[in-house]
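Why do we care about 3D structure at all? Because function follows from shape, and shape follows, mostly, from sequence. That is the central idea of this module. The next example makes it concrete: a single protein chain, its amino acid sequence, and then its structure expressed as tokens.
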Amino acid sequence: MTTAIDPDIGAREALRLLGPDPDNWVPDRLDIDHNVTIIGGSGTGSVFAFALRRAGIGHVTVIDAAEDEVHAGLWLNRARMNKLRTPKNLPGPELGIPALSFQAWYEARHGIEAYEAIDRIPRVLWAEYLSWYRQFLGIQVRYGTRLVRIEPADGFLRLHLEVNGEPKVETSRKVILGNGVGGGGGPYIPTVLSKNLPRHLYAHTADAIDFAALQGKTVAVLGGAASAFDAAGVALEAGAKAVHLFARRSAIASVPVIRVRGYPGAYDNYPSVSDEARWFQAWRFRQAGSTPPPDAIERVIKFPNFHLHLAAPWTSVEERHGQIISYVNGETFEFDFAIAGTGYFVDPVARPELADFSQHILRWRDRYQPPADLRDDELGAYPYLGRGHEYQEKEPGTAPYLKNIHVYNPTGFVSFGLPIGDIPSIKRDVPAVVSRISHDLFFEDWDHHQTRITGDIAPDFEDSLYAAAVWKQNVGALVS
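And the structure:
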């Protein structure tokens, strides 16, 4: 008879050795529901919930607009790659506890050799690991809860929510925006599509696309980065008659500018780099372009009905009898459907939850003026974040509550040199945010803590414990 072995035994032992979670040290406040509210219940929300718990910060809630775990986040929804684009051994949600890592989880279930055999992490397995992580650590996510608006109040934030379609207001001292790639603005849809075509004829890769409906159809994909190739791959695998991918550049971007910043010196110290140098690195990345992984390209080029168009931006398009007619470089093409793999724009004004104060948010264009040859209006729209990823005021003193909103989404790219929210940002930036939250909550309640650490303290024991052992000088014995 074979005895079943619990694959989580290593993780359980690691938590036992780590010791119990610290008690919540943040004093309760009247009319405050939460110390921290985390927006986004997928991987980011789970990691922050665990990190805050280990920092002794209680009354933390995690909300997600999705109806349930399966529909939350991108890994089982908008993500269409077969494998993650990052190396399999990058530090991630485990936060320095090896037994909580993907590697430990995978090896416990499939063996060491199986892990050694994979080059990068399969996307679906990553989603399965994150689900295990959340359940194993007992992290509760309130699904069906959407943030509608953040309203600044006196010493806290009033959160206007929709809970299963019903309005509700809750209060929180801190908010973490872990709301994904579109969380700082939204999907960028080229105006050539939005102004000339009905919405049912095109989609953005951020949309829930019915790829099965594209079987036998001729599909156009705009964009030359990973999401465009991923969408083209899924369309081809779904049986599209033909897929044409149109890239603006004369060659697909292949220089991994961001990757060379991954060594510890640059990674750990990047937030201290000068504004001038950080701007230049962001500009340099924009010039080089976002590189799709080789397997994303290999996925599509194996299909004879895939066609790649270089230096081929769409400038003119129309709808005719339910078809898309596009004119590119002097040629006319006819498509049944178009997919924009064109990324996302950054603009806090476009986010309804920030509507009450978006005009007060400090942007990079407000803080740094680059030389004329390095100008980039899109980079200038990014928020200029503090060391704890907090929004900062454009005019000091006009919006002090902004420091209580911590931004953990790709809008931190210019400030921190990485697409914040992706796996590479976890090791450095989650602790930075948690440290800042801890600092702020502690000093906002300094009077309470000063009393706690300097007030009367009960002794551990009375002096009677050692009284009998105290040396008593025998005066007579000392007389000669």
